[in-house]
Amino acid sequence: MWRWFTVSLAIALAGCSTVTKVDEAQASHELGFLRVGQITRSEVVQRLGEPYQSYEGGRIVSYRLWESDGHLQVGAVPQFCLMLVYGGNDIVVRRSLIRLR
Questions:
Q1: What is the mean pLDDT of residues 39-67?
Q2: pTM
Q3: Any residues with CB less than 8 A from the CB of 28 and at least 6 apart, and which?
Q4: Is 57 in a helix, a strand, or coil?
Q5: What is the C-alpha separation between 36 and 58, in angstroms, rounded?
Q6: Cα separation, 6 vs 69, whole angstroms
Q7: What percent of the chain is predicted at pLDDT more than 90?
Q8: Distance between CA 92 and CA 84 in Å, rounded?
Q9: Which end of the chain, C or N, has fewer beta carbons within 10 A?
Q10: How much of the chain is helix, strand and coil, in % rounded to 5?
Q11: Enclosing H/E stretch for 46
């Protein structure tokens, strides 16, 4: 399962020259509502809208985010990529926030 996540993540970020995973404490501060194991797909879509891209039939999705006034927002000029993996019952089972350069 994680192998597919890794492959999908590599494909999603192939066009980016440099990526850095954001510290989990910072990600939790900005994206605390994305409670792994608790938040559903419909709740994510209510907060963030439709994902920028999806993989494996929607099991893995990505959002393009940018920072404005110290807060992350969904945006067209990405500074960050948020990757979410959904498990059974459309619950988020993994999240990664990656800084793009």
A1: 93
A2: 0.72
A3: none
A4: helix
A5: 17
A6: 32
A7: 38
A8: 7
A9: C
A10: 30, 35, 30
A11: helix 41-48
